[in-house]
Automatic annotation (TrEMBL):
Molecular function terms from GO: hydrolase activity; zinc ion binding
Name by which UniProt lists this protein: Phosphotriesterase
Family the UniProt entry places it in: Belongs to the metallo-dependent hydrolases superfamily. Phosphotriesterase family.
Record's cofactor remark: Binds 2 divalent metal cations per subunit.
Source species taxonomy: Bacteria, Bacillati, Actinomycetota, Actinomycetes, Kitasatosporales
Binding-site positions, Zn(2+) 1: H32, H34, K142, D261
Cofactor(s) recorded in Swiss-Prot or TrEMBL: a divalent metal cation
Amino acid sequence: MNGSEPRRADAPAVRTVLGDISPADLGVCDAHDHLFLRSPQLPGQELDSPSAAAAELAAFREAGGRSVIQWTPHGMGRRAGLLPELSKTTGVRVVAATGLHQAVHYSAESLEQLRAYGLAALFVRELTAGIGESGVRAGLIKVAGGFHGLDAHARWTMTAAAEAHHATGAPITVHLELGTGALDVLDLLCGECGVPPHRVVLGHLNRSPDLTAHLRAAESGAYVALDGPSRAHHATDWRMPDAVRALADAGFGDRLLLGGDTTTAGARSVHGGPGMPHLLRRVRPRLVTDVGEELVEQILTVNPGQAFGVRWT
Ligand SMILES: [Zn+2]
């Protein structure tokens, strides 16, 4: 990893697993992906192999990638202690996450314990002191909405995320269930809880290919992270370039982010799937056809630095 510029203490920074860096040093970035992931919802498809994670990162770097923003939240097998070494050996900058996914990804017992500990306190601890005993600090808070709405669990986690944002400055990334519910999420996070819209990153919006709904979400000022491909979302993945073009045409090119969102071992490039390199091998040239090289480079380099570079407090 080369030549970081000197950074003022109060300047925006991206919090990587190796420390805070200037947003300009992020380079070509996969803005939504996973190196480790475990959930009862994905039995037998866990991302839990350090060697496969290293190989995938190396393949991404070989394709021109320089940084990966990981969205795996608390309690889903993050293996945070391994991330600094993986980042060092592969030369790819890595950002880890705190936060909480939908209730189906956790046992009732673990949610009970989190309720007793205090969710906002946990998020703040992972953002400022580190994840578990690893000393590795998270650089974002990941939460999740529901299908066209928010249940009590989503309201609990988003309220805690907003509290942790106000305490630290951390960006909040949101899993939108099948791409829906963005306006409900924005009403809660920004309307009720006072999070500035530009500190919110909406994920998976393209999985519901309603271009008008995309525009309404982008008008708020939030970042829009489009992703894929994946087998589970093959039916709508082909609409992603349409979404990029429509948002760019409407003047929201500076709000766009792109990610691979590799969630299963079989989807990794090192196992024959698209994986992280696909973003640069195939998605990048495809989008250049639609919106031109300059905007695509901005989406891959400048925009992630602005979305994930914050003034930490
Ligand atoms: Zn994801």
